[in-house]
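FORM 7B - TANDEM STRUCTURE REPORT

SECTION 1: FIRST PROTEIN
SEQUENCE AND TOKENS:
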Amino acid sequence: MLFKKAKKEEGNKLELLYPQNVRVNCKADTKENVIRAVGQMLVDTGYVNPSYVDAMVKREESFSTFMGNELALPHGVEEAKKDVKASGIAVMVFPEGTDWSGEQVKVVVGIAGVGEEHLQILSAIAEVALEEGSMEKLISGSEEVVYEMLKGGKAS
């Protein structure tokens, strides 16, 4: 679990991850198409404005979001912070892998973070990914398994 639930439920804040933002058994595609697909999931859930998706592609052009261990964490450039309405993530799993500028990626987690929350989200995802056997569970798991491994508490 990425974040502990807040003791007190607040207003209409969005959860960090919703079940509909987890897609498993995805087929390989171009890196840009994958970024746009995971970004569109963030848009559809209301985390970001549509222009944030272009900022995710721009980030990737200047700095790869490949983290090693078959994991990529695409997110927008700093100037796109204004397009983030709430912190959230969206997940796509590619059991057969997809090319990420010559690297093999099997788990892609699109990230939108309000303020500095993206750093906390990046850190929490990296922690899950480094846990013994967790990447295998993410790659072979059902949508429910992936959701349970990565879900968080309330986001801003």
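SECTION 2: SECOND PROTEIN
SEQUENCE AND TOKENS:
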Amino acid sequence: MDYMEFEPRNIFGLGKENTAFAQYFTGKSYLNPLTPPGSVPYFANVTFEPGCRNNWHTHRAERGGGQILLCTAGSGWYQEWGKPARSLSPGDVVVIPANVKHWHGAKKDSWLSHIAVEVPGEGTANEWQEPVPDEEYGAL
């Protein structure tokens, strides 16, 4: 899906280029906070250009925590460590428990937007890890 087709479907808006976290992404992403940063829970629309994905990462928590993704536009992938990748389309919901290594991003030929919800918890922290290798991503 090209940008001209995608943009009217991206109902929560593109936001600004996600430069603060660019080092943890392959490709360009955009962030549009929907609640004030630091609020609990925190909601943000994250948009990925075609081929963009984030590194493997884990939402650490001693209790509670994790993340919920609500796919709103475009098409993408979600994968947990050691499991096959799951295709994402508008309306899909992904509940990611705390302490589960995973990545998510757009398909090679489509933009993707999802609402990311940081689930409240105790002792929470995001641990960024290695990039998803091009060979593995390209095989999807």
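SECTION 3: OBSERVATIONS ON SECOND PROTEIN
The first helix runs from residue 3 to 6.
The domain at 3-138 is CATH 2.60.120.10 (Jelly Rolls).

SECTION 4: SIGNATURE
Preparer initials: ____
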